[in-house]
Each structure stands twice: as C-alpha cells, then as structure tokens.
Write a structure and sequence with these properties.
Layout: H1 2-33, H2 40-44, E1 47-51, H3 53-56, H4 62-66, H5 69-72, E2 77-82, H6 107-110, H7 133-145, E3 149-154, E4 158-160, H8 165-168, E5 198-200, H9 206-223, E6 227-230, H10 238-248, E7 255-258, E8 272-274, H11 276-286, H12 292-305, E9 311-314, H13 319-325, H14 328-332, H15 336-345, E10 349-353, H16 379-392, E11 404-407, E12 416-423, E13 426-433, E14 439-441, E15 447-451, E16 457-460, E17 466-468, E18 473-479
Helix pairs in contact: 9-10, 11-12, 15-16
C-alpha cells in the first residue's frame, strides 16, 4: 500500500511539473494578446473609422458591427469612433422638417422616427436597439484583440429632455428668465441653434461637472474604452475637459478627439481636433470655387496658428456632412478620389465614415433607420492601399511628431497641388491636378520615384513638362538612398 501511495505521489508531481510550463506559456500568450495603452507612436500612423451602429447593418446592432471588425484592419484602421450608443430621449424627439414625433398622429408612422443620436437620455446605458452592455463589451474586446482602439462619442454640452437630471437637478441646465431649461443658444446672438430636442447644460455648477466626469470615468473604468470624441467640444468649458482627462488618465491613457479647431483645447485636454477649414477648402476646390493655391495658403496659415505637436483629423465625409450636405460624390464629383488620397497624405489622421469604403452614394437618414451598402467596389481597394501606406511609411506620420510638409513649386500654382513629406529616410510626394481641365506644367523636383498607386517607376527632372488629366493625382515614394 505504501509503495502504491509513493507511486501515485510521484506521478502527481510529474503531472504538476508538466503543467507549470504550459500555464506559463498560456499566461504569456494572454499577456501578448493585450493591446498596449494608447500611445503617441500609434497615433502617428493611425486611420480612424467612424462607426454608425444604427445604420451600419440591416440589424443595426453591436453584434452585426463586431463581426466585421477584423476586416477593418485591411483598411489600416487603428481607432474606431463609435457614434453615440446611448438611449435616446422620446420627449421633443425630432421627426421630419419642423415636426416632432409628438406632432405625428399615426402611431405606426411615429415608430419610424428614432431620434437624434445626440439627444442622450442616460449616459451610463446603451440603446436597447443596439444590444446589451455585454454585446458592447464584446465589441470593445474584439477591437482590442485586433489591435484597434475604441473611443466613444460623448455629448457633454446637452442632454435629451428625458434625462433624469432635468427632474433631479434642474439647476444644472441653462434657464430662461422664467427658470425653465432651454435648448442650446448661439452665444453670439442669443438665439436657438435649432437643436430643440436637447436641453443645454450649465457648467457653472460644480455638481454637474462632477456627475459628468463620473459618467465618463464609468466607461473607461468599467468598459475599457480608450477615449472619447467630444461633440461640440468648444461649447463646453475647456477646464472641464482638462479636469476630466486628468481623472481618466489615472485609470489608463486615453485618446481625445475634439469636434473643434480651437487650438486652446489641445493644451491639456485633447490630442486631435477637426480639420473643418481644410475640409471646406477641399469641397470648394472640387466645386471649382477655389484653386490649389488656396490650399497652399491654408497650410502656411496653420503652420503659424498651431503649435508643432497639434494635429487634426482630415475627412472628405462624416455623419453630419453625409446626411446634411451631401455624399462625397455630390460635393466633390470627379475630384473625389484625389481628395480622398489627399486626406491620407497631408499631416494629420484620415477618417473613414461608415459606408465610404463601399462607395456609398446616398445620404443616410439621420432620424430614421437606414442601411449602408456592403458591396466592395472601387473605393475599398483604394482605401486598402492608402491605409497600408499610412500605417507603414514614416513619411506620412501625422501626429505629435509629424513628418515634414513642404510645398513643391509648380509652373501652375492655380491648378497643380504638389507637396513633399519626409521622415526617417523616407520621402513621399503628392501631385494632383486640382481642376476640371487638363493641365500642362513643370515641377521643381528631381529624382527617381515609385508610383505607389499605379506601380512602376517615374523619373523626374526639374523643369520637365508634365501632363495630367482633370483631377489626376500621383503618390510618389522613395528612400533617401535611392
């Protein structure tokens, strides 16, 4: 019996010894699969994707989007920005035109109108139409497993009219002379912006500041999100954002995107802002209302306006532009591809909005259910190539340590846009005919380059005549040793 006992003891020790390395390997694998915290190196080469969960799929759910996350890596995406995922207020919910849902008598007709994503009724819950909080967590987990960070759209300037704070803390809201909460007002004129489905918050209240900060911390602490996109960030006091970010960073590093160009926001609160002015110039050039020279002038302007480590998000579309001002094709026409390529090659971070990768040529409904197309056409492989270039070529670094940007002199500055980016021994040149007419021109550029989008080599000699079709562009690359 003693001999049997000793044999069993010896075998158990052997098994436990064999298990130890296996457990260590499993622990190492688990640790290696974790996503590094948000960092400046990642931001240099990132592409950001704006996900409209309601409209992304026929189901309009977290799960339907989550299963497509792995393929976003093919587009070079490193950050997913989720449009607001919170419950939406029913009171004063917008329908169509000047009508609210309450103005529509037919109950079936009323059901069509789902309200604005930005009329939040509870900051700590997810909309039941999108799924459960567990579904949301799975989305974040899947993104992290694929090396992608997730930021949440945050609406700190106002709430929907159903938010409990209106009952519990009416003093947290901007009030009229009768002591009634009001919708957001234009500070310059005192008139309503027309956002009648939301109530304006008043940040003179310390209680509001604490409650809003705590709700933001909830998502970082409990649901592992990696930061926020701040709606109308400039309408909320900068010191609120600064304090909130300080608290968040006690939990983990976060990435903050401001819907604003206000450079003061970048001091201590936000990492990146919106390139609204650049976007409008791109639209104007595409529509023949501006020339390539105006882009050159703009780049000189921001070079002196912003600090060296400030950077902006570049976009040809987003949820507002698509729904209210038109599709990329409507606004940019035949210039669309050249403008998309330009958004990837200028300093900053390029944005893909849901549906852009599928050549979406419709305006998504804003207050109703709609669905993006899901068929890969012309744009998908273009975005794949541009995403790979952005991710891998240091000459396109666009964050706090951005690659240099230099204008390349041309003989036709009104129609030809040409610039050079350089960093870490790599050089990239973007050349485009920014007009609807063929262009004949010369450049002050020498060297042997690779034609990135089309393949092959291109030998350039300063003063050599070049011919470009309307809206034709080239992205040329080389290393300094070539």
């Amino acid at each position: 019996m003693k001999r049997i006992f000793l044999m069993l003891l010896f075998m158990s020790l052997l098994i436990s010894c064999k298990d130890e390395p296996k457990n260590e390997v499993q622990a190492e694998e688990k640790e290696s699969a974790q996503l590094d915290p948000v960092n400046y190196d990642m931001l240099e080469s990132a592409v950001i994707y704006e996900a409209n969960i309601r409209q992304y799929s026929p189901e309009g759910t977290f799960d339907a989007f989550t299963k497509d996350i792995p393929q976003l890596k093919d587009l070079g995406v490193k950050i997913i920005w989720l449009m607001p995922v919170h419950p939406i207020s029913m009171k004063n919910r917008k329908a169509k035109g000047d009508l609210n849902v309450e103005d529509i008598e037919d109950p079936e007709e009323r059901k069509k109108y789902l309200g604005s994503y930005y009329a939040v009724s509870d900051y700590t819950k997810v909309h039941e139409d999108y799924g459960t909080m567990e579904d949301f967590d799975q989305l974040v987990k899947t993104a992290h497993e694929n090396g992608i960070y997730v930021i949440l759209d945050w609406v700190a300037n106002h709430t929907g009219w159903d938010h409990k704070w209106l009952e519990e803390h009416p003093e947290w809201y901007t009030q009229n002379e009768k002591g009634e909460p009001v919708d957001p007002l234009n500070p310059a004129t005192g008139e309503s912006w027309g956002w009648t489905d939301v109530a304006d918050l008043n940040y003179d209240n310390e209680g509001l500041r604490n409650a809003m900060t705590e709700d933001m911390l909830f998502w970082v602490r409990e649901h592992d999100i990696d930061g926020f996109r701040a709606d109308v960030a400039g309408e909320v006091p900068t010191d609120f954002w600064e304090n909130a970010v300080t608290e968040m960073k006690k939990i983990k590093p976060v990435f903050m995107l401001a819907e604003s160009e206000d450079k003061d926001l970048f001091e201590n609160a936000f990492d990146m802002g919106y390139n609204w002015e650049g976007h409008h110039i791109m639209n104007s050039i595409a529509q023949g209302k501006a020339s390539a020279k105006e882009w050159d002038d703009y780049m000189k302007k921001i070079d002196t306006t912003y600090q060296e480590d400030d950077f902006l998000m570049n976009f040809v579309t987003n949820h507002d532009e698509n729904s209210w001002n038109g599709t990329i094709k409507e606004r940019m026409g035949d210039a669309s591809e050249a403008m998309v390529a330009m958004s990837y090659t200028i300093p900053g971070m390029p944005l893909i909005y849901s549906g852009m990768e599928y050549d979406m040529e419709k305006r998504l409904k804003f207050f109703e259910k709609d669905t993006i197309p899901k068929t890969k056409g012309k744009m998908y492989p273009i975005l794949e190539k541009l995403g790979e270039l952005k991710n891998s070529n240091p000459a396109l670094h666009g964050g706090k340590n951005a690659a240099s940007y230099t204008n390349v002199e041309s003989s036709s500055e009104e129609s030809i846009l040409a610039f050079k980016r350089q960093n870490a021994g790599e050089e990239l040149v973007y050349i485009a005919n920014m007009s609807a007419k063929p262009a004949s021109f010369t450049l002050d550029l020498n060297g042997s380059y690779s034609d990135y989008m089309n393949g092959g080599k291109l030998e350039l000699e300063a003063g050599e005549k070049m011919e470009f079709r309307p809206w034709e562009y080239k992205i040329l690359t080389r290393t300094e040793t070539e």
